Amino acid sequence: MADVAVPVARSPIRPVGGSTVVDGWERAAGPPRGALRLCDLSFLAKVQVRALRSGTAADRLGTGLGRAARRSSAHQLVIGSGPGEWLVLGPQGQGSALVEELERRLVDASGLISVVDLTHGRALMRLTGSDAVRGVLSKQCAINFADRVVPDGASLRSTVASVTTDIVRDDLGGERSYLLHCERSSGQYLFDTLLDAGRFHGIQACGATRSDW
C-alpha cells in the first residue's frame, strides 16, 4: 500500500531561514534572534466571538473593548477587538477545542452569540524589541504608541501599511512587543513591509519559540 501523505497546514507567510513541521504546521526554523525581531504566529488558534457589548457573555469573557488579558491557566489571550467582538488566541492545534470551550462557557448567555474558528483564515505575527515603534510601527501607522496611550495590555484596530490590522501591546518579560492580526490574504505583504521598514534598525525575521507565546 502506498504511503498516504499527511496534510500539512501552512501559514500565509513564507517560512524564513528554512522550515520544519511541528504538530502538523509548517513553521519557520528561523535564523538567530536579534534585538528587533518579527516572527510568524499564524499557527496559533484564533477564535472570534461576537456578542452583546455588555451582558452575560461580555462578563464571562472578562475583557473589555480595547484591552487584552491572559487566562494563564488555559494559556489563552482574550482580546476586546471591537464593539461586541472578541478575539481569543490559544495554543497551536486547539482551534476546535477552543470553540467548544467558549460555546460551553457562553451557552446560556444573553443575546445572539457567534463563535467562529478563524485559525486558517487570518495571519498573526509578533514584533518585539525596544525599537519596535521608532524603527517599524511609526513608519507604517499613524497611531501614537507612547506608553500612556498604548500601554501593555492595550488593543486597537488601525491600518498598518494600509492593511486593516488588530494591534495588541503584549510585552514579553518586560520587553516591548506587539501582536499584529490581519486577513490571511494580507499577511505576507504586511510581514514583508514591516521587515523592510525595520532594516535600518537591524530587524530580523525569526522562527517562533515558546517565549513568543
Give helix and strand order, one letter per element, not per position.
Answer: EEEEEHEEEHEEHEEEHE
Q: Would you tell me the structural class of the helices and strands? A: alpha+beta
Structural domain tally = 2
According to CATH, the homologous superfamily of the largest domain is Probable tRNA modification gtpase trme, domain 1
Count of beta strands: 14
Give the CA-CA distance, first to last residue.
40 Å
Helix content: 10-25%
List low-confidence stretches: none
- Give the CATH level 1 class of the largest domain: Alpha Beta
Kindly identify the CATH topology of the largest domain. Answer: Gyrase A, domain 2
The CATH architecture designation of the largest domain is 2-Layer Sandwich
Biggest sheet statistics: 6 strands, mixed
User: Strand order within the widest sheet?
Assistant: 11-12-13-10-4-14
- DSSP strand content: 25-35%
What is the radius of gyration computed over CA atoms, rounded to a whole number of angstroms?
Answer: 17 Å
Task: Give your account of this protein's structure.
This protein has 213 residues and is of the alpha+beta class. The chain has 2 domains: 13-43 and 121-212, Probable tRNA modification gtpase trme, domain 1 (Gyrase A, domain 2, 2-Layer Sandwich), CATH 3.30.1360.120; 45-120, 2-Layer Sandwich (Alpha-Beta Plaits), CATH 3.30.70. The protein is built from 4 helices and 14 strands. The chain has helices at 56-61, 95-106, 132-140, 187-197, and strands spanning 9-10, 19-22, 25-28, 37-40, 45-50, 68-71, 76-82, 85-90, 114-117, 122-128, 155-160, 163-169, 177-183, 204-206. The strands form 3 sheets. Strands 11-12-13-10-4-14 form a 6-stranded mixed sheet, covered by helices on one side. A 5-stranded antiparallel sheet has the order 6-7-8-5-9, with helices on one face. Helix 3 (132-140) crosses helix 4. The model has no long low-confidence stretch (mean pLDDT 93).
